[in-house]
Amino acid sequence: MFRRMDEIMIEIPDVEKPDPNAAAAIQELLGGKFGEMSTLNNYLYQSFNFRSKEKLKPFYDLVMSITAEELGHVELVSHAINKCLRGSTDYKEPDKTPLGSVKDARLSYHFLAGAQGAMPYDSMGNPWTGANVFNSGNLVEDLLHNFFLECGARTHKMKVYEMTDHPAARAVVGFLLVRGGVHVVAYAKALEIATGVDVTKLVPIPSLSNKAFNEAWKYEEKGVHTKLYTWSENDFTAIDQIWKGTHPEDGLPLEVIQGSPQGFPIPEAPAVEEEFAPGISAEDFKLIAKRLKMSGNIAD
After folding, report:
1. Is 300 labelled as part of a ligand binding site?
2. Cα separation of 88 and 62, whole Å?
3. Are 91 and 274 contacting, i.e. CB atoms less than 8 angstroms apart?
4. What angle do CA 46, 48, 52 make, to 5 degrees?
């Protein structure tokens, strides 16, 4: 089962800097081949279909815990996209073309079908597909695939970071570079235990440290790259048999934390009347409030 909290993993800067094309680029980190929907669903189905989980419990626990974190990454990237789209248009009467300013946006689907919100697509508007999911059932093959998937995701994050200086985009991408790096090292260590091959010698791929990115470096200064969470109060404790020793890049000690990290409030998304969202007028709201009071037997 999953437990959900009304929080996101980091606080995203609240700036008035609409950038639809930055949002389009970030879509690759959501619905692209190496995006967060791919990492989530790869690990999700590997965890559903895991064989001999009792005998191979540390590996099962690792995939289970990382799956839970990936759900939070999908959420975080979606809010980064929303922040970049915010303020792209203004309300006007329909005949005054209120969406005219975004007709040339590289991914106009944000405005035609999404009311200026994130969608399960890549940067070119192609829908995410389950064909991106790999689950061979073979432990080593799946771990090797996951290592490659995280390295590919890391490359794409670096490129998106270099494409835009939008504060919301960079804050999220910088954080995900650090957390994605944790998963790279985790799968490398799992492969070493499973095969005896020291895969951590390949880290980092690409050969550029997260410390080269200001929005990633600040998290590494706090040791965020050394922590792996169980995302459960009681389960998945065996990951400490894999996530142990020191980090291969800076030699800092690794730490397993039972539970989840502290979260931050989910940003409020304002109405976009020119997109008919949420489509509730002030008068409608008063009627809804009245009906809620009546159904709850609440007196004025």
Report:
1. no
2. 41
3. yes
4. 80
Query: Do the annotations mark residue 275 as ligand-binding?
Result: no
- Please indicate if the annotation marks 207 as binding a ligand: no
Backbone conformation region of residue 272, classed left if phi is above 0, alpha if psi is from -120 to 50, else beta? beta
- DSSP conformational letter for 127: B
What SS3 state is found at 126?
A: coil
The answer to whether 220 is a known ligand-binding residue is no
Helical spans, DSSP H, in the chain: 20-31, 36-48, 57-85, 109-112, 139-163, 167-195, 214-221, 282-295
Average pLDDT over residues 247-272: 96
Q: Is 61 annotated as a binding residue?
A: yes
The phi and psi torsions of 215 (rounded to 5 degrees) equal -75, -10
| Distance (Å, whole) CA 210 – CA 169 | 16
> Phi/psi of residue 180, each to 5°?
-65, -35
Q: Quick count: other Cβ atoms within 10 Å of Cβ 87? A: 15
Do 75 and 118 meet the contact criterion of CB atoms below 8 Å apart? no
- What is the pLDDT of the chain when averaged over all its residues? 96
pLDDT tens digits, one per residue of 277-291: 999 988 898 899 888
CATH 1.20.1260.10 fits 16-295, yes or no: yes
For residue 246, the cross-strand partners are 253
Q: Report residue 173: phi and psi, to 5°.
A: -65, -40
